[in-house]
Amino acid sequence: MTTIIVSTGTYFRPFDRLIDWLEPWASIHPDVAFTVQHGPGHPLPGATNSDFLAFEDLASQFDSADIVVLQGGAGGVMDAREHGRVPIVVPRLPGGGEVVDDHQLLFCRRAASLGLVYCAESAAELYSLLAAAIAGRIPTRVTDVEPTPGSSRLAALLSAPFTPLAVSGRRSRLARSLRLLFRPSSVSGRNAAGKNAAGKNTREASGKKAVEDTVNPEARSQ
Predict the structure, then answer these.
(1) What's the DSSP call for residue 203?
(2) Percentage of the chain with pLDDT > 90?
(3) In a shared domain, residues 39 and 132
(4) Residue 79 included in any domain
(5) Which residue stretches of 41-102 are H helix?
(6) Within 13 Å, how many C-alpha atoms sit on residue 100's CB side?
């Protein structure tokens, strides 16, 4: 018997369209066992239904199920990929109370173009992908999970040895920051301007002393 895990995610809005698409297909495939996490939406008749699955339980389903079907959220897709799965995803769409914008649609299309998921934007596409997965025409598991494009480069940059900025560079950056910090504001009135000028002189003197202490710590200890 083929097993399928379906998750509509933990969003507070229901995703009944996905369940409605699956219901007629499931009714003519009694040899398929569904486990469904349906959130605030309605359950799938004949399936093992739950409104919520703990992460450990969902991860266990990712490992054991033959096919993974998800809403088009990035979090669920990344979790499934971490468990070596190529999920079938159905993106939520705006306008029907499913989600506020089309970010899931854009994400799913991009992820599908990278070979990370199979994207179903219609019931017919969902049925076709399910049939292909059951027949073994498309893989639902991957043995070597490739990192997200760009992540290897980022990891290399973060793990590279840190090169301290030269003293001249630190002096220049700190001086520029202090100039911005102590830049006088435009205040009307002679008295206010005089007070600002006096305060400015005091702050600038303190700022210069801070620069000297930063770039020449020996002088500070004398």
Answers:
(1) H
(2) 62
(3) yes
(4) yes
(5) 55-64, 74-82
(6) 2
pLDDT digits 0-9 by tens, 143-156 = 776 666 666 777 77
CB contact set of 151 (below 8 Å; sequence gap of 6+):
none
Whether the CB-CB separation of 61 and 33 falls below 8 Å is answered with no
The single-letter code of the amino acid at 5 is I
Better pLDDT: 174 or 220: 174
Mark whether 105 and 180 lie in a shared domain: no
How many structural domains are present in the chain? 2
The verdict on pTM exceeding 0.70 is: no
- Tens-digit pLDDT profile for residues 141-194: 997 766 666 667 777 777 888 777 677 777 787 888 888 888 776 544 455 555
CATH at residue 86: 3.40.50.2000
Other beta carbons less than 10 A from residue 216's beta carbon: 13
Dig out the tokens for 184 from the structure.
Answer: 């006088």
The SS3 of residue 103 is: helix
CB-based contacts of 134, cutoff 8 Å, min separation 6? 2, 32, 66, 67
Distance between CA 26 and CA 189 in Å, rounded? Answer: 79
